[in-house]
Specification:
Helix content is 15%, strand content 42%. The protein is built from four helices and 13 strands. The protein has a seven-stranded antiparallel beta sheet with strand order 10-9-13-7-8-12-11. Strands 1-2-5-4-3-6 form a six-stranded antiparallel barrel.
Amino acid sequence: MFSGIVEEAARVVAVEPDGGNLHITLECSFADELCIDQSIAHNGVCLTVVALPGNGTYTVTAIHETLRRSNLGDLKPGDLVNLERSMRLDGRLDGHIVQGHVDTTAICTEVEEADGSTYFTFAYEASRELIAKGYVTVEKGSVTVNGVSLTVCDSEPQQFRVAIIPYTFDHTNFCRIAKGSRVNLEFDILGKYIARIAALTQA
């Protein structure tokens, strides 16, 4: 379980295809604190540490289903990945409840500067079937973009905007998101449960 509060934007050191899987090695400041089998969110995707090569690096493996639903298959050496270690139960929930299970990807359609902050617009597929699963945003609701807990503004059936403050821009990979970039989305788990219950009671 996560909160959507990114600890660090880590640099990809290597990517190694292995059948339908992808081994990803990253360099981050807390690599020496990690252990095998530990869970870490990568651009919002919960992955397990499988190796600790040393020199401030660690390796995780993304399977085919993860690559199909997320942007991790797009990674190449030098890219930045948002990291968050699993949430402590004795800590504050500064973001919102995030599972680390990415639902789909979205495309950035616009980046707009606005008096020190930056607005990003994202478009995603929103069929009737997906909406029934809760793959939808609501005004002032929560959404996770590349692992970052954000508040939705200008919610539309197939797109939404978020406002990024300078700190978040500088300390996450939002600094590299541009028009055409593909990002990971995880919709609010509470909304997904409500949508599922509504669909079952109406059947």
